[in-house]
Structures are given as structure tokens and as C-alpha cells.
Write a structure and sequence with these properties.
The protein is α/β, with parallel strands linked by helices. It has a six-stranded mixed β-sheet, sandwiched between helices. It folds into two domains: about 200 residues, no CATH class; about 45 residues.
Length: about 290
């Protein structure tokens, strides 16, 4: 799924750095964020207010996370929310979610004297353009459960949305969650107001959509957007290069091991899922060394 903004688009994608910060990270008006969080965690309880936290992960997770945007906030009941969005590949994303949630948990525990029974809930939300889980559903809620799938503890909840799995059409969107994901997938493709679904008139979605309207941006905001676009494009390319280089190293190691065990070139190519020419090039390197 393409998340980058182009000049011919009226609306900036929510699944872009700028779009994410303008909607989920809108500190001036948190209506969209509050309603979106309520939908994402499938709660019937209205979130009345949220307070943005300083990004406690800054400096800890700066590991070339290109294409990943995050925020942390707390509601009026001191429940903790971590929201991550990624439009590129997401290797080990579940592990990263656990790291974030446990980091929050440890921070809560270290505040001083406390009663374990009074610990507030932690919701770790991941919104991804691509698929990472072996399930058909686009929305997954996960808690700690026993071998019978019975709830063991719900103090931590992991929420995953895989946008690529969402296939509902406008007329099929009835819940806030469905309306939210539909908007995230389609807002940047709309070119005429006549294409607006009726539910985009709902105030919480209007707040977000107005922030994404490039026609309402000041020259400074447009300049800021162009800078972010350039940075995101370059970071995605850099991350792609890293992934390809890593894959190349793994395949090279597989070829070397297969050749060292006496496998012929054709068999080695099949085992490593590479071309015969690739195997020959590795063989030449081994001979040269």
C-alpha cells in the first residue's frame, strides 16, 4: 500500500508521517484520537480526554525504523495507550510491541509504592499497511490466555490492524472501527466531495479529514509536508536496501554451507532458492579466498 503523498492528491494519507501526526497526534483537538482509540480497543466506554505523553521510546528504539510513526497518551482513568503506524515491511513487529508495552509496565512499577491490583491498563496498538499475522481478520485483539484460550490477564492488550486485509466497501461500514479503517485506506484517493461517504460527515472523522485537506494548508505547512515526503521516501529506500542486503547475506551463507558439504551447483541453487549464476559467483569468491 502506497502511503506517500503526491501533488495531485487533495487529501494527505493518514498512513503517512504528516497525516498520522495531523490526525492521531492532533493535540489541539483530540476528538478523532479518542474515538479512534475507543474503536480500536472495541470499548463501549467513552474516552473523555487524553493527555499526550513524551515519547519515552526516543533514544531507545532509534534503529532505522523508517516508515514507523508512534505516539503515547493516557486517558482520564490513567490507562496507557501506545499507537504505532507502519507502512513498510514489519519484521519482528510483535516483538517490538511487547518491548513497548513492557517498557510502559516497568515505568508504572518504578513510580514507588503501589498495589498490583491498581495497575491501570496498557493498550499497545499497531496499524500496519502490510500483513504480519496468519489470520484472515484485519483487526486482532490479544491478551494473555491459557491453553484453553481462556483469559488469564487483560492488564496488557495488544491490538493489531492490518490495512491490506480490510476489503469492506462504503455501504458495508457500520461500526466506528470499520469507518476508521475505510477512511485510512481511501481518504487520499478521493478527488471530489461527491465521493465522500455519508459517515464522513460525522464530527470525529470531519476533524481528521479537515487536517488532511492540502487545500487548507499554509505555505509553511506545505513546505513542511514536502520535507517530510522527501525524508520518508529516502528512508523507505534505505530500509529496502538494508533488507535486500540482509537477504543477500543469508542466501550467500546458505550457498557457502551447501557447497562446503559437497552439493553440486544446481542442487545448491534449489536449496537456497537462488539462480545458478548466483551460486557460481559465490563459488568464485570462495575460490579466490
Amino acid at each position: 500500500m502506497e502511503a506517500l503523498y503526491t501533488d495531485d492528491q487533495i487529501f494527505i494519507p493518514i498512513i503517512s508521517d504528516y497525516g498520522f501526526k495531523a490526525t492521531f497526534g492532533n493535540e489541539a483537538n483530540t476528538l478523532f484520537l479518542r474515538r479512534a482509540l475507543q474503536a480500536l480497543i472495541k470499548s463501549e466506554v467513552t474516552i473523555k480526554e487524553v493527555k499526550f505523553d513524551k515519547n519515552t521510546f526516543e533514544g531507545i528504539t532509534q534503529d532505522g525504523r523508517s516508515g514507523i510513526f508512534d505516539l503515547a497518551c493516557t486517558d482520564e482513568n490513567d490507562n496507557q495507550f501506545i499507537v504505532e503506524m507502519q507502512y513498510g515491511d514489519a519484521p519482528y513487529f510483535v516483538q517490538r510491541m511487547k518491548f513497548y508495552a513492557l517498557h510502559k509496565f516497568n515505568a508504572m512499577v518504578k513510580r514507588g509504592k503501589f498495589d498490583y491490583g491498581t495497575l491501570t491498563k496498557i493498550y499497545c496498538v499497531a496499524i500496519l499497511a502490510n500483513n504480519i499475522l496468519p489470520y484472515d481478520d484485519f483487526h486482532t485483539l490479544a491478551n494473555l490466555r491459557n491453553e484453553k484460550a481462556e483469559l488469564f490477564d487483560d492488564q496488557m492488550t495488544f491490538v493489531t490492524v492490518e490495512l491490506d486485509k480490510f476489503t469492506l466497501q462504503e455501504a458495508d461500514c457500520q461500526t466506528d472501527l470499520q469507518k476508521l479503517i475505510y477512511t485510512m485506506k481511501t481518504i487520499h484517493t478521493v478527488t471530489q466531495p461527491t465521493q465522500f461517504p455519508k459517515f464522513w460527515d460525522e464530527e470525529w472523522l470531519k476533524v481528521a479529514i479537515d487536517e488532511l485537506d492540502s487545500r487548507k494548508m499554509t505555505p509553511d505547512e506545505k513546505a513542511s509536508l514536502e520535507i517530510l515526503i522527501a525524508r520518508n521516501a529516502e528512508s523507505v529506500k534505505a530500509e529496502g536496501r538494508k533488507i535486500k542486503e540482509a537477504e543477500q547475506r543469508v542466501k550467500t551463507d546458505m550457498v557457502r554451507k551447501a557447497l562446503s558439504k559437497g552439493f553440486d551447483i544446481e542442487t545448491t541453487a534449489d536449496l537456497a532458492d537462488v539462480s545458478v549464476d548466483f551460486v557460481k559467483s559465490v563459488q568464485q569468491q570462495l575460490s579466490a579466498n
